Each structure stands twice: as structure tokens, then as C-alpha cells.
Amino acid sequence: VYAEEEEDRDDGVDWDGLPPGADPFGTNKKGGRERGMRKRNQVMTFVKHLRALLSLRGRREIKRCVDFGCGTGNVLMTCAATFPEIDFVGVDLNATSIEILNSRIRKSGLTNVSAVVGLIEDGDTFGADCALALHVCGSATDRVLNSAVRARIPFVIAPCCVGKVQEGGMRSLNRMRNDLISLDKIEDIERPRSRLMRAAGFDFEAYMSAATLADWSGHQGVDPSDPNEPLAALPRRAKSAIEADRGEFAREHAYDVTLHKMPAQSGIRDDVLVGIPL
Prior knowledge:
The structure is a single chain. It is built from 8 helices and 7 strands. It has helices at 32-54, 74-82, 95-108, 139-151, 171-180, 195-199, 204-214, 230-251; strands spanning 64-68, 87-92, 113-117, 130-134, 155-158, 255-261, 271-277. It has a 7-stranded mixed β-sheet, with helices on both faces. The chain starts with 31 loop residues before the first helix and ends with a strand.
């Protein structure tokens, strides 16, 4: 299911040379060094895949990348500093996160990045040439995927919790979303996403069972990130199945899709979908 990753590849992030506020390690207030390194690994993954997209011959020119569900801008800031020739826009429905991000942008001095309060459903209005999304919860991942497919643009998406794909799974986020959205923007997302998985006999109930299992994050004495932990094997397979289904959905809409793993010590939500329109 997963693409083979090159070992010992230099992904070209000059952490020491980044402007103030552009290194996710420096924004980490609570988790210590371990969490800071985990955030760096996640961001480095996006830099790697974006660089690969930019190197493709005959590709559509990428002038603007939109980071959907950008939060306080960890992916956005590092990418903007690394790729100064590209315009980066962060979109999030949390006004407080956008306020923090705009403060980071001002302190950094970067001029190729901006942030707005908005909805993934409005993705067509941001003029994106590439869609990015790191750990947007539940059905928000599917909305980013749908937005990219409609616009026929490449995407780099690292899904988060999948058991919350039903509306209402994250109450605080849904309250903010409901404040911004109009009824004509609400889209019905069929699950499973792909014809392939539906043809294989998966119905909605089976899909949701797999999605809930995929969200298992361990319990006392059990490390879900340990590859040798037997209790984690089935949840990992369930998560892989959910992401493979999303990837197949894009393939069925004429995309070349690869599924990747982030490097070790990136956290348990380490799947990455990369799609390129054919």
C-alpha cells in the first residue's frame, strides 16, 4: 500500500536559518523536545513532498499553495520560508489560531504568506495551485480532498483522526464551522469513498467500524507507535484501509496517488496522501 521511501535523503530544511516563528520546534510550549522534534518531522514531510511536486516536468505551475486547516501555521511558515517563490495562504475556521498565525507572520518578516478565517468548502475561492492539509480532523480531510479534486490541483494531505468523520464528531469545531457555513455549502460525503471499496463489500457501517478502530491511540502501558506492539497491529491496518480508500477515490477521479509514511518519531497519525492530476 505504501510507497517506498528513500533513506537518508536531505529534505533541505535549514532549521537554523529560518526566520523567527517559522520553526515549529520553537513554537512548542508544552511538549518539550520530543514534541518539538515530532512537529519538525511532520513539517519536513510536507517540504519533501512539495519539493517533489515542484520538480515534476510538464507540471502545472504552482504559484499559490493553500494550507487548509492551517491552525497556527507550523506547515505554512516553514514552507513559506523554504519556497519564497510561492505564495502561501493559510485557511482555518478558528479565529484565535489565525490571530496567532498572523502575529507569527509579522514577526517573521515573510512577505509570501497570509492567513484568513475561512472554510475548506470555500476552497475554490482561494486560487490554489496546490492543497496542503496536516491533521485536519475527520471529514475535514475529505473536504480538502474533494476541493482539490474539483479544482484539478495536486495535494499533500496527512489525515488525522478518522473516527470523527461523522458530522458532530468534534463539537467545538463544528460550532465554529456552523457559524461560517451556509446550507448550500454542506456536502454529503459518501462512505466508503471509493467504488473499489464499496464493490469489495464494505458498507457504511463497516467503514465506520474501521474508522473508529483506526483512531485507537493506546492505553496505559501500551505504546501505539511501537511497531512491535501486537495490540496496535489491527488499528494500523484499519487506518491504512481508510487512507487507501481515500487514495482510490482520487484515482477514480484521474489522479496519480501515492500513500506514504512520515519518518519515525512523527506521531501515530503518520500517513500522507500525495495526489497529482493526470
